[in-house]
Design goal:
By secondary structure, the protein is α/β, with parallel strands linked by helices. It folds into 4 domains: 6-62 and 136-243, Calcium-transporting ATPase, cytoplasmic transduction domain A (Distorted Sandwich); 251-323 and 653-862, Calcium-transporting ATPase, transmembrane domain; 327-351 and 516-644, HAD superfamily/HAD-like (Rossmann fold, 3-Layer(aba) Sandwich); 356-512, Calcium-transporting ATPase, cytoplasmic domain N (3-Layer(aba) Sandwich). The strands form 3 sheets. Strands 8-23-22-21-9-18-20-19 form an 8-stranded mixed sheet, sandwiched between helices. Strands 10, 11, 12, 13, 14, 15, 16 and 17 form an 8-stranded mixed sheet that branches. Strand 11 and strand 12 (421-428) form a beta hairpin. It is elongated and about 110 Å long. The two termini are 66 Å apart. The structure holds adenosine-5'-triphosphate and magnesium ion (MG). It catalyses: Mg(2+)(out) + ATP + H2O = Mg(2+)(in) + ADP + phosphate + H(+); ATP + H2O = ADP + phosphate + H(+). The chain crosses the membrane at residues 69-92, 98-117, 263-282, 294-314, 666-688, 694-713, 733-755, 767-785, 797-816, 828-846. Belongs to the cation transport ATPase (P-type) (TC 3.A.3) family. Type IIIB subfamily. Keywords: ATP-binding, Cell inner membrane, Cell membrane, Magnesium, Membrane, Nucleotide-binding, Phosphoprotein, Translocase, Transmembrane, Transmembrane helix.
Length: 891
């Protein structure tokens, strides 16, 4: 098999793509395609794949790529305001003062480097974290199966897929074993589409290309191999993505940030232009006035906000990773902190997940060892999704050394989440039989008769109540039950869903899957933290109720899938709040429940790992999956746990709240300081006969006050901030900005008056004093505003304290240092320094007093509100708090 290597392959692939050699590949014989792509039965060689990678990467669909470091560095200097500032500075150099220009540029570069270093660190951190949970594809290279990241799959690769896998590229089916793809993400079609080898006409619409696996769709059942013909932008999915600019839905945090950023930007533009005009009207020097206004814009601009927020979120992600939870979307951390309801799957999360077959029983509950043989045919011959129930049966068959009589599968109706049954047409010692097993109700529904322990049969109608009583009593002991049924089908060679009728119920299998010992405690901890835990399972009512009891949930507050079907969305919306357990659900039920819960105003988390959980994961405000889960589930989630462990999720959530609280601290403090400065500058520009600060001084203040901001992510958070869900609250933020901004302006103006009237300060002395005062007040106030308690009662983190002290010392020392003259700063008389300190103390005290008035009024009521969905008891369904915007605003 001539597998091509080296640049020749690379060239051929590029040519194939460019010349559309592989146009409508679904209509071409696979041999021809493989030849065109340089592939053979052993797949590509590793060398050929490596050679093709750059061309493939270049055509990757947008997204996920890490920006090159130099590009990241450049972006620090490419915002319009910075560019205008740099040009104006160069201009001022040409017109006169080169020294000033160089100093301004130096500070701009230093600030840019500081931001770059942080952002770069954040990007590297995220890359490392995501590496652990990035999906991989199974490809054949040099005849060996290897796992490679999705973005390293190249045209010509042979891939192998099985249940739950996402197709990493467009690929033509080579072999298929009952392969069915869920193409809903592409076509909206919710029924899985069967896939088989064999060309289809070139003109076949997407839905009819039965030999094409489409990038982004996932395997609903079965397995197969396929030849990759297109990747990235060249795939159907890539094209759709490009045309829609398809983006995942924005989080509440992103929406809040965007709106707030816009608000600030507008405010800034208006003020800066006004200040510039005032300066011109007052006949100040044009260039100086322009530089002053531009520097103000740089100092006040919120464009640094997203960067610093991103940095503190990525630090948070690293801290969360310590609890073995990986954050896939940074902004979801806010939703994590805001979560009020957590819904989870049962198996593996609430239970230990190591399912064990306990008993094989006849319909009356008496032991029936030979049932294991029938069940064994079904479980060991099935080729669909691997799953723990079949594994448990196979294990029991092996350990009891049951003889399967050389049975062989003729055909199969794979398991699906709606039918909840799995049927195999078997050629065994008793001839050709259809063996069906599945959840009790769905199997009973297709049985006409039951087989009694004595070997005789009876109509289902007369036996049903008896069977249900047995199932109920097993369920009450926490047993998961499967029903097994058969039907002789001597004359057929294939089977379908329609053959699942008129079966004879053979017996029941009881599985033990005990509740995790710490699950109940963790659920209680979540409840104390304001998060109601809810269980949503596909399993039957009796066992769900039993497990609910074990977990401390209310077994009476239960809703089944069939009951959900009877409710329309509105009725479901008003019912979900009081329900603690949802059982007998299909994937669609899970999704509807989550949507209904989000509709009540709750911030809903959903944790699940199966294909059947993917729709619910997408519908939730935050999806949580587990490493090793089906690709579709992992893709739909914004958090991935490395182990299925509820306690670590609790810790991760607390860390999420801490991160959110610190991020909000920064936003609250920076915006109020900026707003205050804008107002002060506007006033100063009007009343002073000279500029209150020079451009280089403003930029230096900006740099010095940014230093402690970089340490905010490390800060401690007051305990009560972590006790309840928190969410973004624009109204409180704007009020905070106005109140504390104005307080700081009042003190700025007091400083003006004292300097001009009391000290008769001239230009340089005034600017030097104001430089020192600006830095000191802005730093001191961090310690007041970072907590709602009196500031001396809440300890800041050491890095924050350290950075703040260093910045303050630099600021005070600068006028006395050799650097001073470069910034036009002159040493201040001792009396003036003392006075500045008095002003700083006065400012701190005033802010502290204002804070005491500000927080109780706006925040305390929010703090005592409860989550919309409550823990036990479930009877009185209170409507309180069912609005968006609950939860406690920060800091
Ligand atoms: N391979 C199988 N063969 C037969 N029946 C099955 C199989 N897998 C699952 N079932 C039946 O379908 C029910 C629902 O299982 P499913 O995996 O769809 O639900 P789930 O919501 O993921 O459940 P859980 O909460 O336990 O994880 C199971 O309780 C079982 O009765
Ligand atoms: Mg499951």
């Amino acid at each position: 098999m001539a597998t091509d290597t080296g640049p020749a392959h690379n060239e051929r692939v590029t040519r194939a793509i460019d010349s559309q050699d592989v146009d409508a590949p679904w209509s071409r014989p696979v041999g021809e395609l493989a030849a065109a792509l340089g592939s053979g039965p052993a797949g590509l060689t590793a060398q050929a794949a490596a050679d093709a990678l750059p061309a493939t990467r270049a055509r990757a669909a947008s997204g996920h790529q890490r920006t090159a470091w130099w590009r990241l560095l450049l972006t620090q200097f490419t915002s319009p305001i910075i560019i205008i500032l740099i040009i104006a500075t160069l201009l001022s150099g040409v017109l006169g003062d080169w020294l000033d220009a160089v100093i301004i540029l130096t500070i701009v570069v230093l600030s840019g480097l500081l931001d770059f270093a942080q952002e770069r660190g954040a990007a590297v951190t995220m890359d490392g974290l995501l590496g652990a949970v990035r999906p991989t594809a199974t490809v054949l290279r040099d005849g060996q199966r290897v796992e490679v990241p999705f973005d390293e799959v190249v045209p010509g690769d042979l891939i192998a897929v099985s249940g739950g896998d996402i197709a990493p590229a467009d690929a033509i089916v080579l072999t298929a074993d009952d392969l069915e793809m869920d193409q809903a993400s592409l076509t909206g079609e919710t029924f899985p589409a069967p896939k088989t080898p064999g060309e289809v006409p070139a003109a076949a619409p997407l839905g009819d290309r039965t030999n094409l696996l489409c990038n982004g769709t996932h395997v609903a059942s079965g397995s197969g191999t396929a030849l990759v013909v297109a990747t990235g932008r060249d795939t159907e999915f890539g094209r759709v993505q490009a045309s829609l600019h398809a983006r995942a839905r924005t989080t509440g945090f992103e929406r809040g940030m965007t709106r707030f950023g816009l608000l600030l930007a507008r405010l800034m533009v208006v003020l800066v232009i006004a200040i510039f005009i005032v300066n011109l009207v007052l006949h100040r020097p044009l260039v100086d006035s322009a530089l002053f206004s531009l520097s103000l814009a740089v100092g006040l601009t919120p464009q640094l906000l997203p960067a610093i927020v991103g940095i503190s979120l990525s630090r948070g992600a690293r801290a969360i990773a310590k609890h073995r939870v990986i954050v896939k979307r940074l902004n979801s951390i806010e939703d994590f902190g805001a979560m009020t309801v957590l819904c989870t799957d049962k198996t593996g999360t609430m239970t230990q997940g190591s399912i064990h077959l306990d008993e094989a029983l006849a319909v009356d509950g008496s032991p029936r060892p030979d049932l294991l043989r029938i069940a064994g045919w079904n479980a060991t011959l099935q080729r669909g999704l691997r799953n723990p129930l079949d594994d448990a049966i196979a294990e029991a068959v092996a350990s009891a050394q049951v003889d399967l009589g050389g049975a062989r599968a003729v055909d199969e109706v794979p398991y699906d989440f709606n039918r909840k049954r799995l049927s195999i047409l078997v050629d065994g010692p008793d001839g050709r039989v259809l063996v069906t097993k599945g959840a009790v109700d769905p199997v009973l529904g297709v049985c006409a008769q039951v087989r009694d322990p004595d070997g005789g049969t009876r109509p289902m109608a007369s036996a049903r109540t008896g069977v249900e009583t047995v199932v109920e009593s097993l369920g009450a002991r926490g047993m998961r039950i499967l029903a097994v049924a058969t039907k002789p089908m001597p004359a057929v060679s294939s089977c379908s869903v329609h053959d699942e009728s008129n079966l004879v119920l053979q017996g029941l299998l009881a599985f033990a899957d005990p509740v995790k010992p710490d699950a109940a405690d963790t659920i209680e901890e979540f409840a104390k933290a304001g998060v109601a835990v809810r269980m949503i399972t596909g399993d039957a009512h009796p066992v769900a109720a039993y497990i609910a009891g074990e977990l401390g949930l209310d077994p009476a507050a239960i809703l089944t899938g069939p009951q959900i079907d009877k409710l329309d969305d509105a009725a479901l919306g008003s019912a979900v709040g009081g329900v603690q357990v949802f059982c007998e659900t299909t994937p669609r039920h899970k999704e509807r429940v989550i949507t209904a819960l989000t509709g009540t105003g709750a911030t809903v988390g959903y944790m699940g790992d199966g294909i059947n959980d993917a729709p619910a994961l997408r519908a939730a405000d935050l999806g949580i999956s587990v490493k090793g889960a089906a690709d579709v589930a992992a893709e739909a989630a914004s958090f991935v746990m490395l182990e299925n462990d509820l306690p670590s999720l609790l810790e991760a959530m607390r860390q999420g709240r801490r991160t959110f609280a610190n991020t909000m601290k920064y936003i609250y403090m920076t915006t109020s300081a900026n707003f205050g400065n804008m107002v002060s500058m506007a006033v100063a520009a009007v009343v002073l006969p000279f500029l209150p600060l020079l451009a280089s001084q403003i930029l230096m203040i900006n740099l010095l006050t940014d230093l402690p901001a970089t340490a905010i992510a490390t800060d401690q958070v007051d305990r009560e901030r972590l006790a309840q869900p928190q969410r973004w609250n624009l109204r409180v933020l704007v009020r905070f900005m106005l109140v504390f901004g104005v307080v700081s302006s009042v003190f700025d103006i007091v400083t003006f008056v004292v300097l001009r009237r009391g000290f008769h300060a001239g230009e340089t002395e005034f600017q030097s004093a104001w430089f020192v005062a600006s830095v000191l007040t802005e730093i001191a106030v961090i310690f007041v505003l970072r907590t709602r308690h009196p500031f001396w009662r809440s300890r800041p983190s050491s890095p924050l304290l350290g950075m703040a002290v260093v910045s303050a010392i630099i600021a005070v020392a600068m006028p006395f240092s050799p650097v001073g003259p470069f910034l036009h700063l002159e040493p201040l008389p001792g009396r003036l320094v003392g006075l500045l300190l008095v002003i700083v103390v006065g400012y701190v005290v005033t802010t502290e007093v204002t804070k005491a008035f500000f927080w109780p009024r706006s925040a305390t009521p929010a703090m005592v509100r409860r989550p919309a969905v409550r823990q036990r008891p479930a009877r009185s369904r209170s409507r309180t708090g069912r609005r968006r915007g609950r939860g406690t605003p920060s800091p």
